[in-house]
Design goal:
By secondary structure, the protein is of the alpha/beta class. The chain has 6 helices and 38 strands. The protein has a domain of 93 residues: 3-Layer(aba) Sandwich (Udp-n-acetylmuramoylalanyl-d-glutamate--2,6- Diaminopimelate Ligase, Chain: A, domain 1). It has an 11-stranded mixed beta sheet with strand order 9-12-15-18-23-26-29-32-35-37-38.
Length: 367
Amino acid sequence: MKLPSEMSLAQIAQLIGGKVHGSDDVKISSFSPSAAHAGSGDIALIADTKVLRKLAECKASALIVPSGSDTKLPLPLIFVDRPMLAVQRILTALQPKWFRPAGIHPSAVIDPTAEIAEGVNIGALVAVGAKSKIGKGTTILAGTMIGGAVKIGEDCLLHQGCMVGDFVEIGNRVILQQGVSLGGDGFGYVTERPSNMELLKDGLPGASDEPNPLLKIPHIGNVILHDDVEIGSNSTIDRGTVGPTVIGKGTKIDNQVQIAHNCQLGRENIIVAHACMGGSTTLGDRAIVAGASAIKDHIKIGKDAVVEAAAAVMKNIDDGDVQIGVPSTNAKAWFNEIAHIKKLPKLNEEFRALKKKVEELEKQLSK
């Protein structure tokens, strides 16, 4: 990625909060995502010190490396304490000028009762429903649909094709990526008489093939996103049955995540792609739910807990616990069990050999 203009290593170090080792007047014209493929005029970042040993023939003009790295490389280096923070600062400085609407596009449909604050930019074919309020400096891109009585705070960014249902509340500086859906009905039904599932689960007789229609339970709650939340593309957050589904301040949700009715997420949670949460799940602050994890309804996950990828959570998780597996269990215990399982074939062979020896000894003793 080309820099807007040539910069010296000293200037780059100041930008990212690093310290130069070697000549600080080397000129850099571009940032390379790969040290192995970097060339003259490039600067590249190494996040893993193990990679440094494989870069004897690196052709970059300079490298950004973790503080304390081996300095034997014949290249100027910039030491940083947090490599990914350096990436964040570089890419923030280099990001292009995105295509954003200026003002309100003539094809946008805005209800006369909606309140649009100063400096709001609305793209083509956007619809804003009755009594909705959009805060100062917010930008809404093409094709987004906003229902009635929606509240959107200041400096938000709603990308193309988002769907925001009635009564949803969005805080300040919230980002919705393409295709996000907020405030659809939760998945809730009931039957007039006990269903076959209920009867079988309780071990009761009476299962029948007679019709027993599923009656929809209205969901009259809403969705609340607090400040600085970001929701990834095509993720879905259902409205509460009664009361809100809440996403806490600073929480970041990846693509294609499903969050069911009445979930309560704390501050600065990280929810990775394809994760799904059953209704009324509660997450403490800074909890992490990795990709493709599934959480049963009415589960409580403690603060700073981690649910590893593809785990199936069937019971509550304590603060700071790391869980993995199906059903999920403490990660250390799980890996310990796996280690023992891998030893089973050898233990089986040893047991059979021992059993054979015991049988031979019994024969000898019987004689």
